[in-house]
From TrEMBL, chain A:
One of its GO terms (biological process) is iron-sulfur cluster assembly. InterPro entries: Complex1_LYR_dom, Complex1_LYR_LYRM4, ISC_assembly_LYR. Residues 42-99 form the Complex 1 LYR protein domain. Belongs to the complex I LYR family. It comes from the Eukaryota. One of its GO terms (cellular component) is L-cysteine desulfurase complex. This is LYR motif containing 4. It comes from Cyprinus carpio.
UniProtKB/TrEMBL annotation, chain B:
PANTHER family: CYSTEINE DESULFURASE, CYSTEINE DESULFURYLASE FAMILY MEMBER. One of its GO terms (molecular function) is iron-sulfur cluster binding. Keywords: Iron, Iron-sulfur, Metal-binding, Molybdenum cofactor biosynthesis, Pyridoxal phosphate, Transferase. This is Cysteine desulfurase.
Amino acid sequence: MCSIPLRICSTDPDARGRCIKRNSTQREKNSTEVNMASCSRAQVISLYRMLMKESKQFPSYNYRTYALRRVKDGFRENLHVDNPKTLDMLINQARENLAVIKRQVSIGHLYSAQKTIVEKEPQL
Amino acid sequence: LKLIKSRELEKDEPRPLYMDFQATTPMDPRVLDAMLPYQVNYYGNPHSRTHAYGWESESAMEKARKQVADLIGADPREIVFTSGATESNNMSIKGVARFYKAKKKHIVTTQTEHKCVLDSCRIMEAEGFDVTYLPVKNNGLIDLKQLEETIRPDTSLVSIMTVNNEIGVKQPIKEIGHLCRSKNVFFHTDAAQAVGKIPINVNDWKVDLMSISGHKLYGPKGIGALYLRRRPRIRIEPLQSGGGQERGLRSGTVPTPLAVGLGAACEIAQQELEYDHKHVTVLANRLVQKIMAAIPDVVLNGDPDQRYPGCINLSFAYVEGESLLMALKDVALSSGSACTSASLEPSYVLRAIGTDEDLAHSSIRFGIGRFTTEDEVDYTVEKCVQQVKRLREMSPLWEMVQEGIDIKSIKWTQH
């Protein structure tokens, strides 16, 4: 069910609408399918967006760049996962990581330090 | 020889880039997250047997032990928590040598080992043991035939580090392990720089003792572990006496938050090993190729293939290492191991691989790790190339080389 590539849905809002509709028609066809709420397309995308948004808040240059890179690569790696159990596990892992990132971002703000030399200062 | 003056950063001064991952590593945020509950609420002593504080602390410690064991392919009962790889190395060398001293009086190690191993061996010499310091080839690797010939019937321990912290060279541990097993000699390896970075399996490699350092794999400082094989059992004479914790091998309260941090770091390292290795390799190749393409007369110390890519030791001919480090003040680098940088002598590791005296003085170690970015590498390369060119312009030796004079044929006179 959730094997539709993420790429199609992420940026084009029309495409997103189409594929959610595709989801629901398939749901009607296969009434014996496992409850789809746990691994819906929209959930995965929203998780991805939240992870990226939180990761951007890391005050530390190295942690921030690592989190953004790792989240992107992690989602890309699992693009074609089909098995609902694996998907559930991955989504739970993503939720836990989101909680970790939120806490560590707060700690970073509490104990902030100077910026590193490669961070581009916003031009005034 | 001027030494770099230590000076803390001003309030708004930008921080230098961290490119010294062999000295220590920043803690992964996931590790800190795992440790904090045990610093705030779950602060019990893991050896307290009578209340929930102790039980929960002990359960966390045992979970961490399993995480460490899983990373190296061992059984949790074979892991002893220590205060770091230095303590683990001391325990291994002194412990094994003293336990088996009735019949075995010989220890074999290499010339490129970490200071703590070499120093422990020196203490053993003073206690009446024979120690052989094996030389290494020009690429930093040991000669297996030479090792085989050096092992005597009364050798109790062979100690060879997996990945060197100064030049990044990876020794043929599997072959050495099999050789030692066939000769019935215990094999210890200091894997501080290798754990979590390359795949390790103590049973494949036939290793009997292994030292692990927490702060080299994005874990906390102040904790490490020692792997001690159970089958066939290796016994050691404990270094630290007391209440009999850690099966009597290392008494003292196990610092639960640090142990939890080490365990979390090991679990994360196991999951991220392939991803990190790929990332580090790409960045390391980028750094070396860009530098070598931009300036001539740069030497990579150590074998180009049998290495861990994240530790790059380059010698820039006709440039003084200290001056280059001072010029690269925006990048945190070092010219050798942190333990030896206090003295004025060039690194003994570079001397052991046969580097020329003047090239040894011109070497810099670049460390790349999980958190290094492409921008950091590019900045480092740009500054390095710029400063090397500038320093060479000012160097009379460089002028002479450009004119075609062979430096080595010059007869310097005394005044």
